[in-house]
Amino acid sequence: MGLGLYRTRLRLGWNSLSKAFERNQTLVGNTLAIIFGVPFLSFLPSGVRWGVPIAMVMFTIYRVLKEYRIIRNSLTTPHIPLIVIVGKEKHVREEMEREVSEILSPLGFRPEDYERWWKLSREDYIIYKDDDLSRKMQEWEALVKKFRKAVDHIESRVRRDVVFHVFLNCPAALAVGLGASIDCLKKVVVYHYNVAREPVSELNGSLSGSYSYLPVVDLSGIPPHTLQQDRSVP
To answer: What is the pLDDT of residue 175?
Structure first.
């Protein structure tokens, strides 16, 4: 298991470096120009002799630091929200989305980065229906299928283990259906809505403030074989 994990990380690291090189061929050219162009600086006017290479060095440092952040995050487990909102106005969605981003920010969640790395837009992990559900079973089933489709779509984009953070603002019966639609081998953290805002320091020590959603069920750290054993127990 340990060797397999090592090989997976090595492969991901190599792929990330290859993509970084493709994105930064100009950066590589600038670096080579700095290295091999130093002997020719004496031919430049004194006013610009060191200005050009210094500017190129600063640009190189900026790009290297940016690529390091991308590669580092590509080797860690991504934490992605699944937000379901039913029968609420648009401003409720906006407030909920903002709070979820703040809660998951210490875990590396940044919508703009996830869209750039894995082409995941907000519509991929936010399921929103502004009006209430009717008594028609088809409407309920459609939302459950959409939820399951979102999970599969995210996994197909990221192509590795994902920790899903589930935030629900919907009828309880629908919540049960959503949970039943995905198998118990997923890494999931479920959040509970509290009318009174409470601190969420237990989620991450670096996060301060009070929030409406608190993590109450954390299945992200339970090995899959343990869950399988639990299912086999009568």
So the answer is: 93
At 177, list the tokens.
Answer: 């259906």
- 80 strand-pairing partners: 164
Whole-angstrom CA distances from 176 to 2, 82, 145, 168, 220 are 36, 15, 13, 11, 19
In sequence order, the β-bridge partners of residue 199 are 210
209-229 as b/e: b if 16+ CB within 10 A: eebbbbbeeebbeeeeeeeee
Residue 83, CA distances (Å) to 46, 127, 154 in order: 59, 6, 13
Quick check: 164 and 82 in contact, CB under 8 A? yes
* 81 strand-pairing partners: 165
Q: How many CB atoms lie within 10 A of CB 53?
A: 17
pTM here? Answer: 0.65
Cβ atoms of residues 150 and 178 within 8 Å: no
| 147-162 pLDDT tens trace | 999 999 999 998 888 9
Rounded Cα–Cα distance for residues 129 and 84 (Å): 8
How many C-beta atoms surround the C-beta of residue 147 within 10 A?
21
